[in-house]
Amino acid sequence: MEETRATVGGGHAPAEAPETGPDQLIARFLSGRPQATARAYTADLEDLARFHGTSVADAVRSLLLGPEIARELVLDYAVELRRRGLAPATARRRLATLRSLLASARQLGWIAWELELPTEREVERAAAEMAERERSSYLFPRHPGEADRLDLQHHALREALGRNHLAPVGPLRRVLDVGTGTGQWGFELCWEHPEALVVGLDLVPGRAEHPSGYRHVRGNVLRGLPFQSDTFDFVHQRYLVSGIPLEAWPQVVAELVRVTRPGGWVELVEPAMEFSRMGPAARRFWGLVQDVAISLGLDVAKTVFDSLDRYLREARLEEVTRREFELPVGEWGGRVGSFLASDARAVLTRMSEVLQSRSIITLEEAADLARRSLQEFEEYRTIWSVAIAYGRKPSQGR
């Protein structure tokens, strides 16, 4: 291993649908239907698209990526329909619309599989698991400004590295970005590799506007990845230490490796869950945040940070390499520091609300600590350490 420091199983692999596939498929699916039926089917597809935060064509395009992906998407949608309190007959009709649509795609020869709708028991179990995850996993609360914060982190790391990844990948046909967030990393991979299909997986909907080679899939890596083994040339996961329980990390990394093709690469990017060179206010604030993280089963020190390369070796990857970067937090650190200062300001604001809602501290006290922490980032020249580890899956026969 080289180390340096700087200051779902089974089914079919994702495949591109024909260029005009979704629109053409929808048109053929609705053609010849009674007007009332076509109107109902159209409303069903529009509702699916709203749930996924994308266009109808993109929602259908995602369904065509493969049976595992389609079933996962439909299961998540079924859970959403249950949450809304729709009548069971109405929910079943909407799901049946999707099955009929994919049956039309099969008749056209675009796919070779059939969609199996989830059972009531599967929907109940998935709804319970989703509710439990939302109560117990992710440290940062959902917020309209979260997308901007995630983009700040992306731009800071991109500025520091001068590139989007360190793994020495070759030509790329299929790329997976787990925990894609806003999708910005995946969008840039599309621009760098216009011949590649980039799939971004996340719990929440993706952006409606995206490159033509990008597909968003809603899913949770803690439930397993809805992709065939040995599918992707490059699998990338970043900044999930605040969402994956510490004990789940070996299992998650093994799942990333499973969907990587022999000879392909896996890259992990995670920060230390503590800063270097903090002042007293920042130290106290972050100590309270770590107490919350402990209650969620998350890493609160540097365990994941220190173990990224070990996780890859234990998953039997070769050529494992690790690098560490010390990123400045504050205007004193130039463009990177400025990006991360804005990111830190958003984190302090969000976590102030969390601490207040848990009666750990008053909102006024949290706001005062946050204000003083931002000043200390400049005074103490605070550092945020990020580790990057990557490795290659052995070729078959080795």
Features:
Rossmann fold; 15% strand; 49% helix; alpha/beta; 8 strands; 13 helices; 398 residues; single chain; 8-stranded mixed beta sheet; disordered N terminus; 2 domains
Structure report:
Helix 9 (249-258) packs across helix 11 (303-314). By secondary structure, the protein is an alpha/beta fold. It has helices spanning 21-30, 35-52, 56-63, 67-84, 88-107, 120-136, 146-161, 184-192, 249-258, 280-295, 303-314, 334-357, 363-379, and strands at 2-6, 174-178, 197-202, 214-218, 232-238, 260-271, 318-328, 383-392. It folds into two domains: 13-133; 137-392, 3-Layer(aba) Sandwich (Rossmann fold).
Low-confidence stretches: 1-20
Strand order of the largest sheet: 1-7-8-6-5-2-3-4
Give the quaternary arrangement of the chains. single chain
How many structural domains are formed by the residues? Answer: 2
What sequence of helices (H) and strands (E) makes up the elements? EHHHHHHHEHEEEHEHHEHHE
User: What's the CATH class label of the largest domain?
Assistant: Alpha Beta
Rg for CA atoms: 22 Å
The backbone outline, from C-alpha atoms, is globular
Kindly name the structural category: alpha/beta
The description of the largest β-sheet is:
8 strands, mixed
The helix content is: 40-55%
Question: What does the average pLDDT come to?
Answer: 87
